[in-house]
């Protein structure tokens, strides 16, 4: 069964074709990062304006690359939420109308379910059940995953998302927007031991996170060290990253222990962070659990995860028709698929 | 020629089918429920006319100015439909669509753009009734709209409902009549689109571009710093 996936929830237009037998046939992403950079953050109206210009060209490109035509499609999956309402409406409108025109069913996918299941597109792939750490610019959660649609929230951030903390910290260190990746790069050159930053909620006894305080601690430290030379800036980045990684790894270990599970799945943009991966791999070896990541190019928002999640929910596909989007949508309310 | 036209640029949803020498028009006030209602109402209209989507030669849509979100729902739906049945599309300026609803040949169109501004343009209609812009589509405070030459302009659009006195004062004796309560509708778009299709100006669904007019929607970092 061939599923077209359309993702347009934030600042990336992602389109993909997933075949339930042959796997991922094609996927393309258009990132708007450069466009929003001048504004210091995502401008929702501009995001929507860009999405609507990208969906069809990317879809054509995917079909061509996969050697398929629209007639080969069995279903069309799109991100229904959570995300920016106007941006979501673009993907939803094209998907529903395409389904209407082709008389093919459509599947409304939860963006986070897409991320959560994306490590199953890697080889080797995890099998249920597993603990999932979802860390991106918009989300930071730990979940127990028993099957498709069987998600139990173990803990989440009380303030900033992990990726948001990376970006905000980068901004206050003068690394531009979105500076998360630049911060990580600089951190690799720095000395993580020169400064010690707090590990927020490391011993809170639960699986929640909090990153806003860490960001404030960086601000205080940066002010104290001002003016920052390159080496000091790199050392602060390294200290920040070390604190983030230690908290994330520690909470993952605790989640595995509490659930009795022995597989950890990491998804979301921060899941591409090299230090985090290295620390988790090391912990996995020591504590005898297995850790899985999505392919690197599927860590950020993409259409492949939507096509894939959609293909796992084919039984829920519906005839195209009226639709709404869900800017806020609790993952725990999704129906389970047997 | 068989054409579908669609408009979602206002709080109305309108559909129109041109079936050779027949035209079937529908319009509903839907508030912000365009995404919920457009495809179901289209399904009903096609069923009523015993027509399948694939029998269409093309699809037309109002490309703005109008509600940003409404425009994108309409554009996204038309793109999906046209791509799905592999037919070309035509985008019609919503102000031009409104210009066809005036009685005389000269139309001064003003739509409420919120923020104390109007989207506006002036059109002269040719012998076929096709409007041609003489004041290009723009955005201005009602007191500052550019004035066309000559007299006998027919004012139309909800800009005249929102900023009637200001526009009337600005246009003065050039204004011959006012229709403040007419919205751009698919029936207008369909008629104009027929000319566009006949003139060979239809494009692939990918090439459909919306006409937002209000392009400054956020401040850049350096602009905020200056402010």
UniProtKB/TrEMBL annotation, chain A:
Q: What is this protein called?
A: tRNA N6-adenosine threonylcarbamoyltransferase
Q: Which family does it belong to?
A: Belongs to the KAE1 / TsaD family.
Query: Matching Pfam families, A to Z?
Result: TsaD (PF00814)
Q: Where is each Gcp-like domain found?
A: 24-308
Q: What are the protein's GO molecular function terms? A: tRNA N(6)-L-threonylcarbamoyladenine synthase activity
What reaction does this catalyse?
L-threonylcarbamoyladenylate + adenosine(37) in tRNA = N(6)-L-threonylcarbamoyladenosine(37) in tRNA + AMP + H(+)
**Summary of the function given for this chain in its UniProt record:** Required for the formation of a threonylcarbamoyl group on adenosine at position 37 (t(6)A37) in tRNAs that read codons beginning with adenine. Is involved in the transfer of the threonylcarbamoyl moiety of threonylcarbamoyl-AMP (TC-AMP) to the N6 group of A37, together with TsaE and TsaB. TsaD likely plays a direct catalytic role in this reaction.
Q: Write down the InterPro entries for this protein, in alphabetical order.
A: ATPase_NBD, Gcp-like_dom, KAE1/TsaD, TsaD
Source organism (scientific name): Parachitinimonas caeni
Tell me which residues bind Fe cation. Answer: 111, 115, 301
The parts of the chain that form a coiled coil are none
UniProtKB/TrEMBL annotation, chain B:
Q: What is its EC number?
A: 2.3.1.234
Organism from which the protein derives: Parachitinimonas caeni
Q: Does the keyword Transferase apply?
A: yes
Occurrences of domain Gcp-like (ranges): 31-146
- The top EC class is transferase
Q: Which gene encodes it?
A: tsaB
Q: What name does UniProt use for this protein? A: tRNA (Adenosine(37)-N6)-threonylcarbamoyltransferase complex dimerization subunit type 1 TsaB
Q: Does the keyword Acyltransferase apply?
A: yes
What keywords appear on the UniProt entry?
Acyltransferase, Transferase
What Gene Ontology molecular function terms does this protein carry? tRNA N(6)-L-threonylcarbamoyladenine synthase activity
């Amino acid at each position: 069964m061939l599923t077209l996936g359309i993702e347009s929830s934030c600042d990336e237009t992602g389109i993909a074709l997933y075949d339930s037998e042959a796997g991922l046939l094609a996927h393309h992403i258009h990132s708007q990062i450069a466009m929003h950079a001048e504004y210091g953050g995502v401008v929702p109206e501009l995001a929507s304006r860009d999405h609507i210009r990208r969906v069809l060209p990317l879809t054509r490109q995917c079909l061509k690359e996969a050697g398929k035509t629209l007639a080969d499609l069995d279903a069309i999956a799109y991100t229904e939420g959570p995300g920016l309402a106007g941006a979501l409406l673009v993907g939803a409108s094209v998907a529903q109308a395409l389904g209407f025109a082709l008389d093919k069913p459509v599947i409304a996918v939860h963006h986070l379910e897409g991320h959560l299941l994306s490590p199953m597109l890697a080889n080797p792939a995890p099998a249920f059940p597993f603990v999932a750490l979802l860390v991106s610019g918009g989300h930071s959660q730990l979940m127990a995953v028993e099957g498709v649609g069987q998600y139990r929230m173990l803990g989440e951030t009380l303030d900033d998302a992990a990726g948001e903390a990376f970006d905000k910290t980068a901004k206050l260190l003068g690394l531009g927007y979105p500076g998360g990746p630049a911060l990580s790069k600089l951190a690799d050159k720095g000395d993580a031991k020169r400064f010690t930053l707090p590990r927020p909620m490391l011993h809170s006894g639960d699986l929640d996170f909090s990153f806003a305080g860490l960001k404030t601690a960086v601000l205080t430290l940066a002010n104290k060290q001002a003016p920052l030379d390159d080496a000091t800036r790199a050392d602060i980045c390294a200290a920040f990253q070390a604190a983030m990684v230690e908290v994330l790894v520690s909470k993952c270990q605790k989640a595995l222990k509490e659930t009795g599970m022995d597989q950890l799945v990491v998804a979301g943009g921060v899941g591409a962070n090299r230090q985090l991966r290295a620390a988790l791999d090391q912990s996995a070896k020591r504590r005898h659990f297995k850790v899985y990541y999505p392919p690197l190019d599927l860590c950020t928002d993409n259409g492949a995860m939507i096509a894939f999640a959609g293909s796992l929910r084919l039984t829920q596909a519906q005839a195209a028709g009226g639709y709404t989007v869900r800017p806020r949508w609790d993952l725990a309310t999704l129906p389970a698929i047997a | 020629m068989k054409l579908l036209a669609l408009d979602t640029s206002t709080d109305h949803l309108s559909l129109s089918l041109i079936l050779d020498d027949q035209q079937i028009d529908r319009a509903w006030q839907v508030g912000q429920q365009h995404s919920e209602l457009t495809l179901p109402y289209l399904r009903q209209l096609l069923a009523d006319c015993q027509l399948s989507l694939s029998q269409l030669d093309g699809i037309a849509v109002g490309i703005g100015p109008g509600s940003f979100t409404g425009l994108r729902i309409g554009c996204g739906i038309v793109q999906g439909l046209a791509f799905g049945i592999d037919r070309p599309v035509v985008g019609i300026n919503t102000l031009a669509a409104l210009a066809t609803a005036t009685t005389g040949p000269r139309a001064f169109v003003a739509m409420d753009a919120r923020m104390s501004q109007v989207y506006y343009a002036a059109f002269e209609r040719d012998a076929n009734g096709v409007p041609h812009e003489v004041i290009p589509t723009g955005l201005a405070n009602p007191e500052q709209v550019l004035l066309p030459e000559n007299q006998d302009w027919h004012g139309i659009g909800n800009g005249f409902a929102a900023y009637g006195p200001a526009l009337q004062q600005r246009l003065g004796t050039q204004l011959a009549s006012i229709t403040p309560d007419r919205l751009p509708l698919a029936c207008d778009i369909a008629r104009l689109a027929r000319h566009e299709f006949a003139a060979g100006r239809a494009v692939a669904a990918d090439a459909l571009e919306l006409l937002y007019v209000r392009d400054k929607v956020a401040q850049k970092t350096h602009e905020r710093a200056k402010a």
